[in-house]
């Protein structure tokens, strides 16, 4: 299922998403959140305790992973708590990997550019201040970086698959237990 998320700018720092018949209604909820935040701003603790939905934050400036603040249900069962905690662990694991990876990428890219620019300026007879690198020259760096990090990317992907299969299994288990619980309450 393709998901289209429309973001809205407002004083609220998170957008909540709600599903209606399988469709996301993020825009309407974001507008409501913006309107409510303009009227009054309850404390952070009060907002976290009264949340009905997960909060999706802006992308982290380094990892580019959107932080999700998972809702805590009022009557959260142990299996629901385990699922929420596992989702948070997977998110944190992914965030740490991409933060480390992207930091390394930016650092190595900067070193490569400095080195290539120094080589270019040394080979010229006159001093030119606006020397730049061509896309072909930058492609050398990108290829080398991908080759050097091939195994790390492969390991990340395998771990990601395993973690998401585990989360899918836990989600199925939680949903089945919730259906059984609702049926048992309905029969009483």
From TrEMBL:
It is found in: Mitochondrion inner membrane. InterPro entries: COA8. GO terms for cellular component: mitochondrial inner membrane. The keyword Ligase does not apply. Keywords: Membrane, Mitochondrion, Mitochondrion inner membrane, Transit peptide. The keyword Transit peptide applies. It is a peripheral membrane protein. PANTHER family: APOPTOGENIC PROTEIN 1, MITOCHONDRIAL, CYTOCHROME C OXIDASE ASSEMBLY FACTOR 8. Belongs to the COA8 family. This is Apoptogenic protein 1, mitochondrial. It comes from Sinanodonta woodiana (Chinese pond mussel). The lineage of its organism: Eukaryota, Metazoa, Spiralia, Lophotrochozoa, Mollusca.
């Amino acid at each position: 299922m393709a998901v289209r998320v429309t973001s809205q700018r407002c004083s609220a720092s998170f957008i909540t998403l709600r599903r209606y018949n399988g469709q996301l209604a993020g825009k309407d909820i974001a507008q409501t959140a913006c309107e409510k935040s303009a009227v009054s701003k309850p404390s952070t603790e009060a907002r976290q305790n009264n949340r009905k939905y997960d909060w999706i934050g802006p992308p982290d400036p380094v990892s580019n992973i959107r932080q999700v603040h998972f809702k805590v249900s009022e009557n959260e069962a142990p299996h629901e708590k385990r699922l929420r905690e596992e989702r948070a662990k997977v998110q944190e694991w992914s965030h740490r990997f991409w933060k480390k990876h992207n930091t390394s990428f930016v650092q190595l890219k900067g070193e490569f550019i400095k080195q290539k620019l120094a080589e270019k300026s040394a080979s010229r007879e006159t001093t030119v201040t606006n020397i730049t690198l061509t896309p072909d020259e930058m492609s050398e760096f990108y290829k080398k970086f991908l080759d050097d990090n091939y195994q790390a990317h492969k390991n990340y992907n395998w771990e990601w698959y395993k973690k998401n299969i585990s989360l899918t299994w836990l989600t199925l288990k939680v949903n089945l237990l919730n259906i059984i619980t609702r049926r048992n309450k309905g029969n009483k």
